[in-house]
Amino acid sequence: MADKKEAIKTVVHVMGYDSKKFGGLERYIIDLSKAAAPKGIKIVVMYNLKPKSEEYLQQLKENNIALYVANALKPKDFFKVFYKVMQQHKPAIIHSHFQPLWPGIFGYLLGCKHRWNTVRLMLVDKNIKEAANLSQLKKTTRIYRALINKFNTRFFAVSNAVNKQYTAFYPSHAHKFEVLYNGGKLNPFNKEESRAKLGFSNDTLYICCIAFASKTKGVDILIDAVNELTSKAIDRPFKLCLIGLMEGADVTNQLLDRIKKYGLKDKVINFGIINNVPEVLPAMDIFVQPSRSESLSNSIIEAGFAGVPAIGSDVGGIPEVIVNNETGMLFPVGDFKELANKLEMLLTDDRLRQEMGNKSRQHKIDNFLMSDKINTLINDYISAK
């Protein structure tokens, strides 16, 4: 327990995005705060928009995590709130996630020594292909990134792939970078009970994908693969479960049109945005991450903890969370026919699917426990002088 005479060290987490659900990053913030409090670390959070999940908002309140809303797309308004946070909490560390620019600059101007950023995205070109050199990035991206590098003092890359790309592009800032993987938690839910609660048939196999409405996530590639599967002589019925697509978004509508065009409506279950992903995942048989770019993939980690084997595109940090042909399979990015082949292999081989699921769970326990990652970060907070 922290000494009562010892000053509390406050860390402001600037999330900088629209939190639509009580997902992995939200659970991370709650768990981080719970683990940090006994060690004298207080967590404060800032978002561009008020989080949508009432459950998450309640958890913030119950854990005494102060919440501020400041839209970083409006710098003057953001600064007013940011200044208020700095005055009220006098944070020792500003830790930004999806909004690394203004917290670094304003933190510098207001005298915060430690301005940290967790890098959660690969740098991509105009075709959403992971960039091989700086010249492939837009000029505005290069300027934006240069400012981020200048005004942030420390970076946590969520995968070796992210770390390798950024340190190669910005060698003069390489000393600021280190790898800190995302993590997940042991899944307490039972497969049979989860399937029963969802009304799943024991005769059907369920393919799952968790992705928000973005072309980067490659859900269109997965739909093309499922369409390809329908031409194969597979003797087991299967369905595709889509989780996380926001109703009414342009990309969501395009995906629904694609499903309709292929005549796949009866093969697709659209869950939309849900808060109980850990409860739903054990009901699934195969997880797919078909991204065009991916820094790591929390969803693959969560699927592994649920004992579900994963198939992922061979990009970014995905090969770091899927041991190819052991805990799952990799396919060339965008190759929907090869993805269909991988799906066919797992759909038609019960033993292989179960074996890979078991190995995936153990792999995640050995390498991606959230508690381990949180403890590492808290030690970094404590040691920051």
Question: Top keywords for this entry?
Answer:
globular, alpha/beta, seven-stranded parallel sheet
Radius of gyration: 21 Å
Helicity level, as a percent range? Answer: 40-55%
Judging from the principal axes of the Cα atoms, what is the shape? globular
SSE order in H/E notation?
EHEHEHEHEHEHEHEHEHEHEHEHEHHH
Number of strands: 13
pLDDT averaged residue by residue: 95
Spatial gap, N to C terminus: 20 Å
Biggest sheet overview:
7 strands, parallel
Helical run tally: 15
What structural class results from the helix and strand content?
alpha/beta
Strand order of the largest sheet: 3-2-1-4-5-6-7
Q: Show unreliable segments.
A: 1-5
Approximate strand percentage: 15-25%
Verbal overview:
The protein has 385 residues and is an alpha/beta fold. The chain is 42% helix and 16% strand. It has 15 helices and 13 strands. The chain has helices spanning 24-36, 54-62, 75-89, 101-109, 139-151, 160-169, 191-198, 219-229, 250-262, 277-280, 298-305, 318-321, 336-347, 350-367, 370-383, and strands at 9-14, 41-47, 66-69, 93-96, 114-119, 154-157, 177-179, 205-210, 238-243, 268-272, 286-289, 310-313, 328-331. The strands form 2 sheets. The protein has a 7-stranded parallel beta sheet with strand order 3-2-1-4-5-6-7, with helices on both faces. The longest helix has 18 residues, at 350-367. The two termini are 20 Å apart. The model is unreliable at 1-5 (pLDDT under 50).
